[in-house]
């Protein structure tokens, strides 16, 4: 039989590669007819990087991404509130990588097609419904635009990595509640800018509701970076969140006026925004943690299981870890409901804890705490809040989300490194 995977995003493609590594037949069904490198920056935490390295992707990732060395927090005047090393610089055995989401997706896709052939992915077909029987399931594929039935596929289980607006999640858990909207919007873009803070620093400035995140996702020559930025701003009550479409365009003028004064000595934010060709918007939404990620022969994986506020740089990494645990489970328990339950038992609680930690602002909470005490800036941050007190915000988040250096370094990799012999898996019929 075959594991059917809906969605060729970061999590679905990682699952496909991982199932190939462990020799479990699979087929990915993707709604979009032709994958294009969409999206902007995402971050991969060291434990997720290790899993992708184990899949033989080290050279590709190191070429297209940036090894992030620091994360630094600033108030709305550009004064440093907190700064800490990341990845290898922080003592992890693997780097943190900031990378263009579309470039990562293309690299995963290209690798999958090289190893498994183009038939591994059926593109331009949407998983709409499924019928279970004691021996397996049948999924109904429809055209994304017009909704007519294209085909039906039989499989052993369905793993739905169909993203933050997952139809599968809605079907399995119709009473799970609506998205929680923080009444703010995030505008995103990529622009060239002179290198700042050594060219390997992720920056987060402002406070809850009016925040600017900027980090390099690639180099341009010796003096410039491609910088991914996100501007978070409150929106008027007549706007709503029901615009969750990653390709929804915004306007530069939606954001530029609010950040006009944010010309810091390390980064000119209005110039960065002004130099951006296209801006996209996405509402600040998450979903309540689910009581289960699996029902019968169907399981949720990646954003479909756990859409979270993009705070703490965790979303994509958790999807990658999900995929690796799911592949190991399917290898160990066969293509059975037990495998899905085993995956659920290992992953759900820790990831649900991250959703909740992000609601509390994650490590960014230090910015609000400092702004409460010094709304007009400061001469000496240590007078406003001593270092030990500032450190607690970051440490607390790492502990709640399993990201401490000791914990990550002590974890064995989930499946282990791929070697020539292991790349013997088959794709499903
Ligand atoms: C176009 C796009 C742009 C993004 N840009 C950013 C960004 O700039 N920054 C950021 O932090 N995150 C971005 N994300 C989200 C980010 O990729 C995820 O948070 C994270 O990587 C987890 O990935 P995922 O595989 O679970 O979901 P996704 O990467 O969202 O992938 C889901 C996939 O499922 C497909 N799909 C949906 N419904 C069906 C269906 N019924 N049948 C078959 N296929 C289906 C989608 O077309 C998509 O390819 C973007 C996602 C998308 C789809």
Would you write up a description of this structure?
The chain has 429 residues and is α+β, with helices and mostly antiparallel strands. The protein folds into two domains: 3-178 and 294-360 and 403-422, FAD/NAD(P)-binding domain (3-Layer(bba) Sandwich); 181-285, 2-Layer Sandwich (D-Amino Acid Oxidase, Chain A, domain 2), CATH 3.30.9.30. The protein is built from 14 helices and 20 strands. It has helices at 10-22, 46-54, 58-64, 87-90, 101-116, 167-172, 252-255, 269-274, 315-333, 337-359, 365-373, 381-384, 387-400, 405-410; strands at 3-6, 26-30, 41-44, 66-68, 70-74, 80-85, 96-100, 121-123, 126-133, 136-142, 149-155, 157-160, 180-194, 201-207, 210-220, 224-234, 249-250, 279-286, 294-295, 298-300. The strands form four sheets. Strands 6-5-14-15-16-13-18-17 form an eight-stranded mixed beta sheet. It has a six-stranded mixed beta sheet with strand order 8-2-1-12-20-19. Strands 3-7-4 form a three-stranded antiparallel beta sheet. Residues 420-429 have low confidence and may be disordered. It binds flavin-adenine dinucleotide.
